Amino acid sequence: MSGYALELDYGSAAAWMGRAEGGVSLRIKRGEIHAVLMDSADETASLTEILTGQRVTAKGEIRLGGNPVRISSPRDALTQGVGAVYRRDGLAEGLTLLDHYRMVSGAAGSKKRARSAAEALAGKYGLKTEWDIPVRELSSGERFRGELVLALAEEIDILVLEEPGDRLSPLEMENLLPLLRRLTQEGKTVLLITRRPACAQMADARTDLTSGREGNALEKLPIAPGSVTLEARNLTLIQKDREEPVLRAVSLEARAGETTAVLGLPGSGLEELAFALAGMEENAQGRVRLNGKDISALSARERMKAGIAFAPGRDGGYGLSPKASLPENMILRRYRDAAFKESGFLRKGEMRRYAEELLEKQDAFPSDDEMTPAEKQRVALAREMDAHPEALIALKPTEGMNRKEARDIQKRLLAVRNGRRSLIVLTEDIEEAMTMGDRILVLCRGEIAGEFEPGLTSARELGLYMTGDRQQGREEPFDDEE
Amino acid sequence: MTRNNVRSFLEICLRGLICLALALLIGFAGMTVITFIQLRNGGEAAGLVDAVNRAVRGGVIPFLLSGLDKGPAQELSAAAPIMLLSLSAALSWQAGLYNLGLAGQYALGAAAAILGAAWGLPWYVCLMLAALAGALGGAIPGLLKARFHAPEALTGLLMNWVCIYGVQALLKGLNRGVGLLPDLGWMAFPIAAALALFSWGLLRLTVPGFEIRLLGDSDITARYAGLPMGKIVFRALAVSGLMAGVGGGLAFLTGAMRTVPNLKLTLTGPGLYGLAAAVLAGGHPMGAAAMGLLISHLAQGASAMDASLFPPETGEAILAIILYLASFRMLWSKWRKGEMGK
Fold this sequence. Notes:
The complex is a heterodimer of chains A (482) and B (342). Chain A is globular. In chain A, strand 18 (391-395), helix 14 and strand 19 (422-427) form a beta-alpha-beta unit. Chain A is α/β, with parallel strands linked by helices and 482 residues long. Chain A is 33% helix and 23% strand. With 342 residues, chain B is an all-alpha fold. Helix content of chain B is 77%, strand content 0%. Chain B starts with a helix and ends in a 5-residue tail after the last helix. The chains are: A alpha/beta (482), B mainly alpha (342).
């Protein structure tokens, strides 16, 4: 029986991890908090899938406590003592955490008994969350803590946390550490799989699986911000199946030559805000103005014509149509222009020429029919920026990309700002907001919780506002040791 | 993004044939067993080889080949209605819609053609009336979806009954008249093929076609591109109905049908086969026409199997197996890319 709780050996990892070179080899000792640092969320997701049985390949070996095992499904993983809390929560929105607990613990016995068991378990580890409200009304942190309790309710030896930094603010991460320490003292092993160095810092031991290529720094030209271009006043969005409004009286101003970063946790309303600004949210109320002119009634296409470009990121399919050809995608928003149309027929030749020129110019040519997220984003940005927009709205622009790709996208985005236009970046990534933004607005549960200058704030402070522990305009004493 | 069009067309044909071969193997095994049991029950001392022999001669061969008996012209003409129904289903699928009302539109088209003929109009006018009737039949679910977001699968399906019973009532006295229809003979197939080509051209080369494809591709991207969604839905369903209507018209104008369209005939026959062919072709318009031809051929073969050994439903059962296998599309694409993940 070796001293390792978990060993993983995948000789050529290329196939399932999309890594160009190198295998993957992990040695995790029992009773330690071990961080595995990787390049991108896709890679961390792949590794998690292998460990939890969501993906099965014949290409490598996993050993638990020295014995080779086959993990064929998440249920199988649990039987073998491997539990996980994932990057995206796997809870059913309409049920309560208590319902989930009863599903996990076998649903036998009364509701009351289940609740006391759940609360006892949560209390033992100091995990505070709500058991009786529908999941859809829980905050990101409450869901995470709930899922932790659910995982601990099973008899696990190894707890896998996939990208916890994506679900928790820096402060919540810090508060998590004592709990993880406690688990290891009980003999359990904690595996943090992440792409964030800050998150990996917390661990006792680290395995670095990054490809080690850093990019060069981002360049933000010193520009005095110009006039207000895109302005939103009191944007409110109420959706039928949600009790709370998704956006509450959100107001923001974007200036020329400036990057306005909107930062929020998953579920804070970033996507809805981006879509509302771009004109794709029919139920949004409030005013949107471009260079003083009211465009609230304009459709998405009309706003594009007026000068608002939108890169919807993964949530919007990158603004590309999967089955259409590349030239067709390049003219997606302009297919009615006279240049590409001739008495009802598409001018394919023109389209292809335009697409080739544009992609060459922007160095955005995809290498293959199947495009990676970064390539899709480059193509989308090439298209949007060709229209020389007044304002570019980018929603989670570097989601799912590795460090190098993300840097490249960020550089392209900054070109808009350095060209004295407005750039609005909506992101969940604190680091991205701080490096790209000239001003940072924190969005928490649908409202703007605060406005900051990157040089005058910290990731920690931003995190506090993101979780709603603090709010500008509401001076509450915060009694945590700083 | 897209691959070469010709290549995907051929891939579809290949896939259809592979599904056919597999289904035949399964069906053949079943047919052998049935033959074996039947022979034993009939008191004949029969061995396995005998059973195989009889099964092949009475079952597989007729199934595969008897479509050709009456000569290519006849067979191709008979295939036209199913080809058009398949095209109709594929067209609506391209827009992400499910035109389950095509059987009703088929009936409307047939009725229009019959009435036209009864009034002594030349065949091409009859066909145009059929097209118009089908288009109207498709326009109604289209309008309901565009205006009220009514699911077209439901409205279409229910309209089938309205259309078919309506048509039956309308044509009650005309039974004798049906035999007097002008016989288009060989023209039916070229018309169907031309319409398939036209559809392909429409989708690939024109602006409205582009809009339809975009809508079917991704809802979000359609909104992003600012497509007039209601208008496109209406157009797509109307065109789909048009194709189905022409199919109905052709069915009667070529003398393939001698009775007034009734429920069983339109819903369980061409309508179903058309849908099946479209699924087999993965929604590709030209592929749908090709698969329509294949299925029509097999449908004719199904009725020619040795009735003493095989119940008449056997042929349809095999068609159903083909459809089932074709729906394993996921298996196909994984197989091609050579990756077996989940």
